[in-house]
């Protein structure tokens, strides 16, 4: 089977990549575009470390053949980092000591980004459901859940101020 | 899981109500939260893990692994692998300059008892036989699956006590017996007081058996490295090892090169928990890089991480306690059978830790322990979070609860009665310093609203109350 060109809008930048059939999105992001913030943990969809947002939905990029998401909009951890600072979710993770080895953080952040975009006021149960496919082996889940909850509240507050 | 995650208590300060005469200093750092230095890198995805390094022309290694627990290798034929498009080379034991090693030889633990690649036998399921080096990961996987290996099965030893029977099949020929020898003894020994006298005097005897399985650390980032040959003839090793210097020194010994030829870039580990202190991937990646003069990547897939990365050792523990009516333990005898798997790695050291921990955080006048480091045809075990101690604690504290329940004693009071104090001599002849068991139990009881009688609330690790 022949390779083909896949067009993606990655973190707002148009990208064209040549992919062999079956090449996964995580491989395109990491190996071709060198966006290494997205992590590869298991390559079989069981750890969530490679989670990115594709057309508004959090997906595990190790399970997505790149040719099936031609022309999609992809957001990675690099795309949620403001110039010279941290986004509200990132800040909440740092302040809440929700990082340890760091390997799960990108995936957690992308799942949380998609969650809050869809539901600005998630309950703890909503947050747990959203990150249920993301494995953390160090910090435990409570600080991560708290950080997502705190960030969502902060973002709602900021939105309200902006609206007034 | 509970549905509500409590908010963190903020503004926590140092609790000075315990050991009040010891910590009157004006602490500026202790008790104050300070941000983690690596947190910003982690949340922006800019922390550099070994696999975030990309080098053009990198080759990939996949290993052909034993499909048997224990067998002679009658034939290894790498030729079919070489026919796979993209396969560059197949490494066998002959390509490894000093094939036999043991990680802790660096601190004089020996003998070398493990080959980097199998020679004439395999001793556990998944043991590396040869390494296929290829242009792509897919070609390496295909190549590794095509290597032809003929096995002649040998009897398999999978149980720690079976392994020590006189007629048991020998697992590891270097040792010539199925246990690690400690200074001429077949096990690590602790002898303190006279346990038999203690048992004779005791009102009750409690004897129970405890057992654990191997436990995999399961870091989210699997074990791996990338090795890059440099223009000056050195090799740069990008690794997720937890032990850069174990890796540097052991790899140099295996390659038979001076350590100055190698540079290890590490320290950023995507979860380790002890699972990344052995030297598993770097030597083969270095050999492949030297033989091809190209960057080489060797990363475990998830299945390899589960099957062949060293887990916490399985243990079987027997505890016999002699206890008086009032709850004082007067004698404790423990027998540990700790499963090292087919090779030593860090387990002889773990067994020593287990022995030093006997009889737990309690002062018991008569103690006896036999701690066996046993070889079996299972995945070699090694470090994991408090290895050598954690499973012993599971057994000890289960035993404490059982005794308390049988004697109708409050489990906290039973522990307080036997708790060790500063100045006590432990079974391995070290003086106890900085004990805090009593204070921790007192505080825990308070936090959960468990009322302790006055005499137990007044107890202290620093001094024994007058009789």
TrEMBL record, chain A:
It comes from the Bacteria. InterPro entries: 2Fe-2S-bd, 2Fe-2S-bd_dom_sf, 2Fe-2S_ferredoxin-like_sf, 2Fe-2S_ferredoxin-type, 2Fe2S_fd_BS, Beta-grasp_dom_sf, Diverse_Oxidoreductases. CDD domains: fer2. SUPFAM superfamilies: 2Fe-2S ferredoxin-like, CO dehydrogenase ISP C-domain like. This is (2Fe-2S)-binding protein. Signal peptide: none annotated. It comes from Jiella avicenniae. Coiled coil: none annotated. It holds the Pfam family Fer2_2. PROSITE patterns: 2FE2S_FER_1, 2FE2S_FER_2. GO terms for molecular function: 2 iron, 2 sulfur cluster binding; metal ion binding; oxidoreductase activity. Residues 4-80 form the 2Fe-2S ferredoxin-type domain. The keyword Iron-sulfur applies. Keywords: 2Fe-2S, Iron, Iron-sulfur, Metal-binding, Oxidoreductase.
């Amino acid at each position: 089977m022949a390779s083909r060109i896949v067009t993606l809008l990655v973190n707002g930048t148009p990208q064209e990549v040549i992919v062999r059939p079956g090449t996964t999105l995580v491989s395109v992001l990491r190996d071709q575009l060198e966006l290494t913030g997205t992590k590869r943990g298991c390559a079989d969809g069981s750890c969530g470390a490679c989670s990115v947002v594709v057309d508004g939905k959090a997906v595990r990029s190790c399970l997505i053949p790149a040719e099936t998401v031609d022309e999609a909009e992809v957001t990675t951890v690099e795309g949620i980092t403001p110039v010279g600072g941290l986004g509200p979710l990132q800040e909440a993770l740092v302040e809440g000591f929700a990082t340890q080895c760091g390997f799960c953080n990108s995936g957690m952040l992308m799942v949380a980004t998609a969650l809050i975009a869809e539901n600005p006021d998630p309950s703890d149960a909503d947050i747990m459901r959203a990150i249920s496919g993301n494995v953390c082996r160090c910090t435990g889940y409570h600080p991560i859940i708290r950080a997502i909850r705190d960030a969502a509240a902060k973002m709602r507050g900021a939105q309200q101020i902006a609206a007034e | 899981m509970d549905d509500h995650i409590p908010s963190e208590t903020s503004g926590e300060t140092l609790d000075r109500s315990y050991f009040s005469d010891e910590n009157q200093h004006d602490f500026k750092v202790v008790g104050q939260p300070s941000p983690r230095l690596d947190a910003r890198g982690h949340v922006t995805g800019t922390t550099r893990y070994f696999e975030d390094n990309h080098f053009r022309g990198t080759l990939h290694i996949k290993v052909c692994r034993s499909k048997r627990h224990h067998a002679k290798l009658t034939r290894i034929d790498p030729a079919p692998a070489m026919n796979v498009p993209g396969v560059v080379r197949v490494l066998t034991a002959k390509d490894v300059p000093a094939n036999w090693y043991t990680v802790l030889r660096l601190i004089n633990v020996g003998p070398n008892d493990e080959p980097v690649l199998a020679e004439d036998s395999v001793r556990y399921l998944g043991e590396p036989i040869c390494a296929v080096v290829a242009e792509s990961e897919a070609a390496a996987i295909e190549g590794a699956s095509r290597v032809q290996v003929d096995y002649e099965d040998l009897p398999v030893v999978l149980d720690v006590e079976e392994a020590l029977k006189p007629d048991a099949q020998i697992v590891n020929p270097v040792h010539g017996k199925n246990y690690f020898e400690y200074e001429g003894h077949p096990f690590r020994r602790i002898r303190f007081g006279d346990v038999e006298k203690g048992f004779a005097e005791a009102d009750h005897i409690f004897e129970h058996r405890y057992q654990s399985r191997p436990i995999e650390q399961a870091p989210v980032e699997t074990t791996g490295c990338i090795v890059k040959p440099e223009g000056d003839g050195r090799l740069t090793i990008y690794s997720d090892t937890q032990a850069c210097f174990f890796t540097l020194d052991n790899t140099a010994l295996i390659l038979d090169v001076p350590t100055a030829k190698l540079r290890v870039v590490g320290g950023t580990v995507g979860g380790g928990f002890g699972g990344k202190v052995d030297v598993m991937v770097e030597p083969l990646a270095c050999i492949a890089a030297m033989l091809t003069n190209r960057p080489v990547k060797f990363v475990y897939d998830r299945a390899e991480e589960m099957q062949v990365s060293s887990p916490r050792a399985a243990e079987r523990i027997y505890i016999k306690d002699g206890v008086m009516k009032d709850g004082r333990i007067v004698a404790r005898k423990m027998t540990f059978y700790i499963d090292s798997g087919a090779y030593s790695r860090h387990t002889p050291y773990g067994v020593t830790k287990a022995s030093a921990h006997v009889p737990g955080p309690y002062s018991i006048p008569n103690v006896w322990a036999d701690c066996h480091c046993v070889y079996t045809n299972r995945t070699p075990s090694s470090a994991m979070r408090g290895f050598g101690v954690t499973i012993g604690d599971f057994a000890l504290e289960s035993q404490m609860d059982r005794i308390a329940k049988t004697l109708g004693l409050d489990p906290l009071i039973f522990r307080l009665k036997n708790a060790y104090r500063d100045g006590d001599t432990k079974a391995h002849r070290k003086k106890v310093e900085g004990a805090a068991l009593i204070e921790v139990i007192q505080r825990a009881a308070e936090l959960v609203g468990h009322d302790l009688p006055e005499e137990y609330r007044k107890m202290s690790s620093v001094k024994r109350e007058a009789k």
